Amino acid sequence: MVARVTRRPFAHVLALALAVGTLVLAGPATGSADAASVCTGRPTRTIGFATGELRLYRTRHYVCALAVAKGPGAPRPMSVSLQPRGGRAAVSAGRFGRQAGPVTVHALNRCVRASASIAGRGTATGWILC
């Protein structure tokens, strides 16, 4: 005995239209990209300098750093480094338009020191987040 296949193209098209309509009316599931950070964890320190700022984020096990320019523009020399006490520095350097980094190091129960520079001007910390 051969089973008869019934097709309901109208039902499928209607379901698809409802799904698309819901997404359009509800909007995106997340906020704007400017509000999000590329580093995980909570913001710990923000150290400003003439051409930008050094941003540090911390979780229980890791520290993350970014160098962010005051204004986006043409690519210019930028660098950010983060070093845990007793460990090697993680460095991101090059020509960037908006930010250098992120760089992340394992820093459970360890102090870190961070530095950043944008277009020849920069800042550095001592041992912090101990």
Order of helices and strands: HEEEEEEEE
Strand tally? 8
Provide mean pLDDT, rounded.
83
Q: Which percent range fits the helix content? A: 10-25%
Strands side by side in the biggest sheet: 1-2-3-6
Describe the sheet with the most strands: 4 strands, antiparallel
Layout: helices, strands, pairs:
Elements: H1 9-26, E1 42-49, E2 52-58, E3 62-69, E4 76-84, E5 90-96, E6 99-106, E7 112-118, E8 121-124
General description of the model:
With about 130 residues, the chain is mostly beta strands. Strand 2 and strand 3 (about 60-70) form a beta hairpin. The termini are far apart. It is globular, with a radius of gyration of 24 Å. It has one helix and eight strands. A four-stranded antiparallel β-sheet has the order 1-2-3-6, with no helix packed on it.
Short description:
This protein has 130 residues and is mainly beta. It has one helix at residues 9-26; strands at 42-49, 52-58, 62-69, 76-84, 90-96, 99-106, 112-118, 121-124. A hairpin with a 5-residue loop joins β4 (76-84) and β5 (90-96).
Defining traits:
single chain, 130 residues, mainly beta, 4-stranded antiparallel sheet
